[in-house]
Amino acid sequence: MHNYSRVYVACRFPPEVLELFVQRFGASYNDTGRVLTSAELVANAQGMDAIIITATDRIDKNVVAQLPSSVKAICTYSVGTDHIDLEALREQGIAVLSTPDVLNESCADAALLLMLGAARRVIEGAALIREGTWTGWSPQQLIGHDVWGKRLGILGMGRIGRAIATRARGFNMQIHYHNRSRLAADIETGARYHDSLEALATHSDFLCIACPASQSTRGIVNANIISRLPAHAIVCNISRGDIVQDEDLIQALQSGAIAAAGLDVFAGEPDIHPAYRTMPNVFGLPHIGSSTLDTRIAMGEILCTGLEALSAGAKPINQVC
Ligand code: DGY
């Protein structure tokens, strides 16, 4: 049985989270105030049993090949694992832990925020207040779209997708979804399944992307899908930017084919497509879906508990491979 006691925290944590790793493992950590280069990550991994990373640390084949043999676990402070070559780690017998479930609710809150912010033109409204350019109430001012009572299409009805649906029902929205497979009736709770994204799009006043990024989902929200959305549709993304074809979405937003977008994630973060910075109908946030203190701490806890389980020879609930 391996003891996972030498831990290196490569990412920059809030103090409350770092403390968990320092107290429980005497962890050493990245104090550079920036994301480490791959070479630095590998250098700091020397002699460590486990490394704690996050979505901005890329663990590709190359990095895996350079990891010291002491490393037996990679813990990612994220539910997404698209930055990690899982196959390469599996081949090396290195365990991967992630942070499932603990961030479902905060991400679902953020999805509603995206829908509301985009539909009610929050960017333009806030600018009037902040820039002192508001000339007073008018019936024509910033007319937006209702969220209440509309059809919500959820792409990816996993745990986050279902938490979004729960909230949306409170807005009397009709829930539609597309998923790799249909959910059992007790968790579908009345949501209508579509066996293709094309079919979902035609029923989505709001299309909310909540599926993981993978080879099969990258780029799937493209011109073909966007052209099937109803007029005045709003596209929201709480998952990963590269699920969307940026040029296609931007074209639809600029031409008025759809009304707006609420985006928490972007391809190439933080160097996002420049058009997203200036379009008035884009309500953009800097990847803050899970960014609440309670969730941040819970994400740290689940990784610490997972490492402790590995040391005890048990299979952690958050082990990906
Ligand atoms: C996640 O947990 O995957 C968040 O998007 C942060 O990377």
At the fold tier of CATH, the topology name of the largest domain is Rossmann fold
Q: What is the element string, with H for helices and E for strands?
A: EHEHEHEHEHHEHEHEHEHEHEHEH
Percentage of residues in strands = 5-15%
Oligomer state of the chains in this structure: single chain
Count of DSSP E strands? Answer: 12
Sheet with the most strands?
Answer: 7 strands, parallel
CATH class placement of the largest domain = Alpha Beta
Distance from N terminus to C terminus (CA atoms, Å) equals: 17 Å
Average pLDDT score: 98
Whole-number total of structural domains:
2
Task: List the ligand species.
Answer: (2R)-2,3-dihydroxypropanoic acid
What is the count of DSSP helices, taking H or I runs of 4+ residues?
A: 13
Percentage of residues in helical conformation: 25-40%
Secondary-structure-derived class = alpha/beta
Low-confidence stretches: none
Task: Report the principal-axis shape.
Answer: globular
CATH architecture title of the largest domain? 3-Layer(aba) Sandwich
